Amino acid sequence: MSSPAYTAARERAAWLNRSSRGRIVVSGADRRSYLQGLLTNDIEALVAGRGCYAAYLTAQGRMTADLWVYELGDVILLAMLGEVKDTLLAKLDQFIFSEDVQLGDVTSTFAAIAIVGPQALDVTANVVAGVSRDALLSLPEHGNVRAQLGEGPVIVTRVSDVGEAGFELYVAAEQREAVVAALRTAGIAELDAETAEILRVEAGVPLFHRDMDEETIPLEAGIESRAISFTKGCYVGQEVIIRVLHRGHGRVARRLVSLACGGDVVPERGAAIHVEDKPVGQVTSAVMSPRLNRPIAMGYVHRDAADPDTILRINSSSAGGNGSSFISARVTQRIS
After folding, report:
1. Which of 175, 200, 225 is at the close of a domain?
2. Measured distance CA(128)–CA(161) in Å, rounded
3. Is the domain of 311 the same as that of 163?
4. pTM for the whole thing?
5. Radius of gyration of the chain from its Cα atoms, rounded to whole angstroms
6. Which of 142, 148, 122, 159 has its CA nearest to residue 72?
7. Distance (Å, whole) CA 258 – CA 149
8. Could you tell me if 269 and 286 are in contact, meaning their C-beta atoms sit under 8 angstroms apart?
9. Which of 307, 250, 304 is nearest to 278 (CA)?
């Protein structure tokens, strides 16, 4: 059975506090060329009002972080998981030599609130001023625009990583309560963390430090089509990515997949995944899906078990009530 917040997000609109994310501002005339050599996506191609999803890799091609990049016209705003912000900031700082680039930690400066759902456009257009509904509608994914909210400025970005498409509002930290009050007055439901997790897993959106970590190669997580440019110049970790794509024909040892589970038991995170009696992977995220009325999961499996409709078994200590048992599962898609 779905919660009121879930129903609101799927059928109307709901808001989610995203202020716990880390935020870094990159300024200076060389900001795009500087980030171009560090991140996986094509930062040089960004113009004011545009953005992209990207990753920062080690020289071994493993992920330090995934992040959202917004070219605001005078600075670039980077948003990422709060837990990796300090590490990312330190690594970025190491590569500033003679470039005209300055880094600023603005995590505590901004608050961020996402508004998602079929009516997110109308809600956002009613909350902000100085930008038309049509202008918001025309924003591509990761697009951004400056507007007004009350007496203060707001940055509006187009987002989809919540699981339902919508917008994210970046406001001064002291404005957060005024924005929340306006949304509550308008009758917009708040998304709690548990419901937001359900939306994310239903959409198959990987989360860093849950479905990806510092040992993950982007190709394993299936984010390459969104996070990697295959036409740009060199970036940190590119050699490994190109080697896998060209010499290995894109074949990695494991793949992140979405799973539809049988029964009514939600698998535990970290539970082993088997093909018959052979272990082939493990669960990274799992929820009970109101949309499908069944448990669903995400997890890594050996590449030979990653094709859609592959039948798997998930080890579970609670499925059988006594001792260890199995949950049946079927691969519904590769994450992409």
Report:
1. 200
2. 22
3. no
4. 0.95
5. 21
6. 142
7. 39
8. yes
9. 304
